[in-house]
Amino acid sequence: MLVKTQAVIISSVRYQEKSLIVRCYTQSDGLKTYFVRDAFSGKKNLQKIAYFQPLTLLEIEAVHKNKGTLEQFKEIKLFQAYEQIPTDIRKSTIALFLAEMLQHSIKEEQANESLFTFLQTALLWLDTHEQVVNFHLVFLLELTRHLGFYPDCTDIALPLFHLSEGVFTQQPLPQTLSPYETENFKKLISLNFDSSAHVFHVSERQQLLKILVDYYTNHLEGFKKPQSLEVLQAVFS
């Protein structure tokens, strides 16, 4: 089946000497994995290696056999080239970290228009705005809406947040945040990308990042802590 769709690169892994295995989140079919034969041979192919960097936005034409095997690209081109993410150390580090989080979080092998739109819109925002120190925090919290475990804010006035249940509570049980942590978490819930600048101190940002990674760990079976987490923390320390 020939499919034309937009896609976000989640990961690319070199296979043997010359080829790539590329995972994308596509607008048409959700998560798909492609085999790129001889990606590292020939000048034309080498120029396209940049297309497979994490979180690149593509327009693709591909053959989808939908048999659980690797699919094949027929044609690829950039949907929109990033201007700042490749050269801004803050933004490139965020992109690397978020790509790894997405790799361990998204399992949907079916179309989800709202999730795809969120990813595309958020990444374009990251590329075009300067105040991005809290972007990854807002992104990860908003992503939980699409993954099915956004915090239940019915009792948000209560002083503690329970990580594994995803609710606010008055009982200090295992897996509950402290009152101070909960207040910062509530503050994060109230933010969007445009209102997130200069809200948290460095220590609060690091604390919230740990909380979010723990929250994902509690709600996603087999979730792995990103290897790029320490790099992100160093860049924004």
Model description:
This protein is α+β, with helices and mostly antiparallel strands and 237 residues long. The protein contains 7 helices and 7 strands; from the N terminus they run E-E-E-H-E-E-H-H-H-E-E-H-H-H. Strands 3-2-1-4-5 form a 5-stranded antiparallel β-sheet. Strands 6-7 form a two-stranded antiparallel sheet. A hairpin with a 3-residue loop joins strand 1 (2-15) and strand 2 (19-26). Helix 2 runs antiparallel to helix 7 (229-235), helix 3 runs antiparallel to helix 4 (135-147) and helix 4 (135-147) runs parallel beside helix 6 (202-219). The longest helix is centred in the C-terminal third of the chain and has 18 residues, at 202-219. The N and C termini lie far apart (48 Å). 31% of the residues are buried. The model has no long low-confidence stretch (mean pLDDT 92).
Rg on CA atoms, Å = 19 Å
Count of DSSP-assigned helices: 7
The biggest sheet amounts to: 5 strands, antiparallel
Helix/strand class:
alpha+beta
Count of beta strands: 7
Q: What's the SSE pattern? A: EEEHEEHHHEEHHH
Gross geometry: globular
* Beta-strand share of residues: 15-25%
Please give the share of residues in helix: 25-40%
User: How would you describe the oligomerization state of the chains in this entry?
Assistant: single chain
Taking the alpha carbons of the first and last residues, their distance comes to 48 Å
Order of strands across the main sheet: 3-2-1-4-5
- Flag low-confidence runs: none
Query: What is the arithmetic mean of pLDDT?
Result: 92
